[in-house]
Amino acid sequence: MTSLDSIVASQPILPFDIESIRADFPILKLKVDGHPLVFLDSAASSQMPQQVIDRLVRYQTTQHANIHRAVHYLSELATAEFEQARHKLQHFINAREDREVIFTSGTTESINLVMHGYGRKFIGPGDEIILTVLEHHSNIVPWQMLAEERGARIRVVPINDAGELLIDEYENLFNEHTKFVSVIHVSNALGSINPVKQMIEFAHAHGVPVLIDGAQAAPHMKIDVQDLGCDFYVFSGHKMCGPTGIGVLYGKADILERMQPFKGGGDMILSVTFEKTIYNIIPQKFEAGTPPIAAAIGFGAAVDYLSAISLEAIAAHEHALLNYATEQIRLLPGVHIVGNAALKAAVLSFVVEGVHPHDIGTLLNQQGVAVRTGHHCAQPVMQRFRIPATSRASFAFYNTMDEVDTLVEAISSAQKVFA
After folding, report:
1. Over the stretch 183-213, which tens digit does the pLDDT of each residue have?
2. 3-state secondary structure labels for all residues of the chain
3. Cα three-residue angle 101-102-106, rounded to 5 degrees
4. Which residues are identified as catalytic?
5. Rounded distance, CA 416 to CA 419, Å?
6. φ/ψ (deg, to 5) at 96
7. C-alpha 273: how far from its chain's center?
């Protein structure tokens, strides 16, 4: 499921009409300081097509009501649309049942839900949790909080100079104290694609459950949670052409049933007295209060949009963009790419000799080119490469080869300013 090369080998380089795709995104018509917007920050948040915008407007203008609580027309309609969105997400990741799809506010909340619901119940003093150097802060800090509270220990898988996990070191970390693994599928800082299926199989051979942070994978490649075999898989809507404030926690039903709720309130209960509360069944058990109804329905529309294009076609186009950008940037003297894994998603982090990444980002912005600068909420990665930050261009299927040329020209122009 992670080999882009195998996908690309069976796909034409441009398997869809890029101009038709771009026409779906109103924001791509924007100009910045007189320059056409070149949006290369989709790893932080992708743009939204008109089809998703229209679906949100239709819900808000003709279907809006609270769900699960009333028998009137609008409530029943909103409930049906909300649950249909869950069903769409189930099929998108090939979960066995739609009750294994929990709606959250995003990847961060999904990880925190597992930390509280599973970790606080099953992880205790002396237990060990395996993470990797590549993790986003949202997949580090919750486990550190748990370890401090429970007297557990964090173990970390190192990487090589290319930004690839050292799998032998990963396997050597396992012992009788290992109780959980949480690992990113695709590095947001470097684009490295981790061999998560292999890692899951090894962990399961030792009886250890695994959470996969798929925030950077789900927008770019076909995800099959049954094939991966993971116990948990988490991702966000706003990185997949959907709204902000919505995400998914996939969990195997038998594990979710054994977990304790993360939040208490309405809709996550079957009955409440001052003596005792009986919790609801999954997924409602983990969805306390009024959920982000419009966002969930919009997420369902985004999944429809991506599926109509096909994740295979998206991966092939983005892979071609990444290869071309890598080739062109390597031709620039004094520009160094950070992270050269053999398997990469469409993320390109780089540093320019003698120029701080924030200055690069500012100068590129003056030419309409939007990139991310900083540590990308992945400070351990920066520490590994002994740098404070990088500039990061992250590509999506709506980007073009011409935009890559504009990026390269903008970097070259920025270098001249500091020459």
Report:
1. 999 999 999 999 999 999 999 999 999 999 9
2. CCCHHHHHHCCCCCCCCHHHHHHCCHHHHCEECCEECEECECCCCCCCCHHHHHHHHHHHHHCCCCCCCCCCHHHHHHHHHHHHHHHHHHHHHCCCCHHHEEEECCHHHHHHHHHHHHHHHHCCCCCEEEEECCCCHHHCHHHHHHHHHHCCEEEEECECCCCCECHHHHHHCCCCCEEEEEEECECCCCCEECCHHHHHHHHHHCCCCEEEECCCCCCCCCCCHHHHCCCEEEEECCCCCCCCCCEEEEECHHHHHHCCCCCCCCCCEEEECCCCEEECCCCHHHCCCCCCHHHHHHHHHHHHHHHHHCHHHHHHHHHHHHHHHHHHHHCCCCEEEECCCCCECCEEEEEECCECHHHHHHHHHCCCEECEEECCCCHHHHHHCCCCCEEEEECCCCCCHHHHHHHHHHHHHHHHHHC
3. 115
4. 377
5. 5
6. -70, -40
7. 39
Q: Give pLDDT, residue 64.
A: 96
Domains and CATH numbers, the chain: 4-48+310-418 (3.90.1150.10), 53-308 (3.40.640.10)
Residue at token pair 């996550």: 268
Provide the CB-side half-sphere exposure for 194 (13 A, CA): 32
Q: How far apart are CA 323 and CA 390, in angstroms?
A: 19
Q: What is the pLDDT of residues 134-178, one digit of tens each?
A: 999 999 999 999 999 999 999 999 999 999 999 999 999 999 999
Looking up tokens 């949480």 gives: 182
How far apart (Å, rounded) are the C-alpha atoms in residues 166 and 386?
Answer: 19
157 Cβ contact list (under 8 Å, min separation 6)? 130, 131, 132, 133, 165, 166, 169, 170, 173, 183
Number of residues that make up the chain: 419
How is residue 244 written in tokens? 């902000």
Residue with tokens 């706003």: 238
What whole-number distance in Å separates Cα of residue 68 and Cα of residue 269?
12
CA dist 123 → 107, 151, 179, 352 (Å): 21, 9, 7, 44
The β-bridge relationship of strands 390-394 and 347-352 is antiparallel
The two structure tokens encoding residue 302: 């985004």
Rounded distance between C-alpha atoms, residue 231 and residue 253, angstroms: 9
Interatomic CA distance for residues 194 and 3, integer angstroms: 10
What single letter denotes the amino acid at residue 156? V
